[in-house]
User: Fold VOC domain-containing protein from Micromonospora lutea.
Amino acid sequence: MTVQLTTEHLRLTPVDLDRDTPYLHLAYRDPAVMGPWLDQDPTGSPEETRRRIADRGSLPGACQWSIRRRDEQEVLGLIELIGATAVPGLSWMLRQEYWGRGILGEAAPAVADHLLGPAGLAHVEAWVDSDNPASAGVARRAGLTERGRFAQAGRDGRPRETVIFGRSAEPASAVVYAVEVVLPVRDVDATVALLVAALGGHETYRHGEPTRRAGLRLGPWSTSPGVQVAHVVENAVAPCTLYVHCAAPVADRYARARDAGVNVVDEVQARPWGRTEFTFRLPEGHLVVVGGPG
Ligand SMILES: CC(C)(COP(=O)(O)OP(=O)(O)OC[C@H]1O[C@@H](n2cnc3c(N)ncnc32)[C@H](O)[C@@H]1OP(=O)(O)O)[C@@H](O)C(=O)NCCC(=O)NCCS
Assistant:
């Protein structure tokens, strides 16, 4: 899959550790590259750089290309298909002195076209921090469009919003747009009002008099994640648990939920699985766990 690719000004060649490490080390030793790229510390020596490149390159499915000007030996940066990911993922970086000259914007489309064409991949995606407009620009240049966002904690504990960009070999409409829980409750209106007050969002539809069914989006957009609320007459409702992924700080969500008068059963706490969470209970016993990166 890692064949040489050429563009108008660039030559992308499979990484050769002996030849390319001294150049790539100039990026690997630079915190301004390693922070936004991999959220890692810079390397302290060419040997460590070599080891880290080799480790990434040895993951199943990984492909790494060094980026050069067409008729020069000097390596300016690297673009790779990350190994061992559930969805094939692209990643890129450039030595700092070459930023902003259109280099990755020229290299990334060639790699995406190759992977989705001759290499036979059905989809590729790239994860880009929302505060990295240059990388988002590269993704767009490569024909990737935004598919969603999520929040994760950085190495320093700081929350980072990550945007997922993606492109398919065959342009096609999504088959599944969302999966939603249908929450059985005795009083639909009261539950919708409580969830909106506690979590934010808006009602999207309401059916019946009294209300038998309602839809809720837990954000400002028509595509924000949602839940449906359905009326049940039985007294015995099997309780379920909703997990609401939210942006940090979770403490702000907690304050809002408290103000809405929810029945808190677990206060805000940092969990060993890397999430900060609190839990409240709805009248029928359903639990709502609200979690985020910090
Ligand atoms: C991200 C990075 C690879 C971009 O490469 P680059 O060669 O400088 O990017 P380009 O010059 O080709 O620019 C690509 C697009 O982003 C835009 N862009 C570049 N720098 C920008 C900036 N600082 N702010 C806003 N837009 C920017 C360009 O205008 C271009 O957009 P266009 O297609 O609409 O013209 C480079 O900045 C880098 O190595 N950063 C550190 C590592 C990193 O962040 N890796 C990505 C992690 S997801």
